[in-house]
């Protein structure tokens, strides 16, 4: 047995072999270690064996009996064969039926003792008699049987085509009994003792094949002490990596900015508004960081429209005054363009040079960036690609962090000698979870909107109420205001979406021939989109029909009404981002969610929370509850290792405990020299994501 179970290939486990190994690979199982941490997604109690005469229709039950017949029946006139097994326990007969599986006949002999588990049903023709369709079965051998599939609490694993649940369980049973004893304990004993966590081998054994008296409800919630132990391990490795990253950042030499604040004062005097207290507080955090001789790594979190970009621009003025370049990286071209449009007039008036760098822009002023002639570079991930060389990058600002992640931040930092990094996100995330996702960053929240902002009133309408919506549109436009009408992007076929937006525009032109109506969507060239948005912003259109390209960054203070068509198809965070496009001026604004009937409970919950709340954090928590953390965070994008066992919402208390222990340990031993096994385990956990330790 190899020392590290991640080196032991799954194909060498009894019952696997090369063919099944390929099927297991599809499930992400390459090694024995992968298999050990591939947990059942639910459990069934098959320990309660009933007499056949006591079985009740419509319930999942387990019964014992002796085989009295095993035959294949061919249905006349249909290409269908049924394998029918009849068993008797002395109290009644029970039939098991398997469709189009005639080969199963060879598995059974008359007189054999078997256990069958399945949903009990009546014979569809006679209305009496007990039957089970495709039941799980166990043949009881005289030599004493392991009872893997019956007579116990049975684990149920997710499988793939070509692999049955039963085969998967047998593989897991063989692996568990061969390898669990070889799993090494990597977490210090004193930590396990502090939280009364069971030993790793016992935890793995109990999670895969629990003892008969284990609470089924706790098992199915993933909340037994053994599940908690495995969740703690995963959260501890996650937090240990973040703690090592943060410690590495703290120890690195960076730029100590020493500004006179000349450019900053000039910028503030040009702004047509005063900063909020929250903006001042967060900028003060940034300034303290920038003056230190270590690289800044700070996250600014704030709802749509709270003024994060202005705070970032203030930081760029500090860098520019001290002779350094700044880069602002956005996740999409339209958001990069929006930042560029908003910033460049101010910056150019101050005598600074700014450029934009995106994949579709033909102009690539690489020489001017390399020579230091350009002070501010705005762009997409094109900024971190080969060929882009900065003269002296001092500040990197990353917008919408959840779309980039740890690895991209690291790549951007490699473009320079440890620049300061400022990360912004409008995705509101509950504080404890933000600390998890961005645990290597310091954390500031802009929790205040500008004083002239009025909360948007959100209303839910259904298709029969369209006349009321048309009246709403007419009233707002007659007041001199502007309107967005947003159609969903339907990924299966974007053509449908474009047609529906186009059809929507034609329909509105017929209804409102006196109004000026425009159309914008993601298939247009960037310049065309920019021109349309500029025209809408300048009041040259009354109604803008759009797809979700307006979701990010576009600021039109005179737009006071947004109608979201098929609102039931949008995600919560997307609805919240879209709504953030209105209510940006001094007028009362309205967001109408037009939903079409026959939507599910999940959609109803999303629409209800939108009507009730404007609070991004409340909406984020509800989004997290509805979608679950994996989908909410999109961990694959964020650069955080995937969590296979832990759930950062369910395990919030464990998460805080793991975080505290991990940061304490890294403080005492930054390179984990005293814990070689743990260090190796940590590097495997974060493998391919980022280099945690600079040495060794």
Task: Report a brief summary of the structure.
By secondary structure, the protein is α/β, with parallel strands linked by helices.
Your description of this structure?
- The chain is built from 24 helices and 22 strands.
- It is an alpha/beta fold.
- Helix 9 runs parallel beside helix 10.
- The longest helix has 27 residues, at 225-251.
- The two termini are 27 Å apart.
- The model has no long low-confidence stretch (mean pLDDT 85).
SSE layout:
Layout: H1 17-26, H2 32-36, E1 42-45, E2 49-50, E3 60-74, E4 81-88, E5 93-99, E6 113-122, E7 130-133, E8 136-140, E9 153-156, H3 165-179, H4 189-194, H5 200-208, H6 216-221, H7 225-251, H8 262-270, H9 277-291, E10 297-302, H10 308-321, E11 325-329, H11 333-349, E12 354-357, H12 366-371, E13 376-379, E14 393-399, H13 406-413, E15 420-425, H14 431-437, E16 442-446, E17 457-462, H15 466-478, E18 482-486, H16 494-511, E19 517-520, H17 526-537, E20 543-546, E21 559-565, H18 572-579, E22 590-595, H19 601-612, H20 616-627, H21 629-633, H22 635-638, H23 652-668, H24 676-685
Parallel strand pairs: 2-3, 5-7, 10-15, 10-16, 11-13, 11-14, 12-13, 14-15, 17-22, 18-20, 18-21, 19-20, 21-22
Antiparallel strand pairs: 1-9, 3-4, 3-6, 4-5, 6-7, 6-8
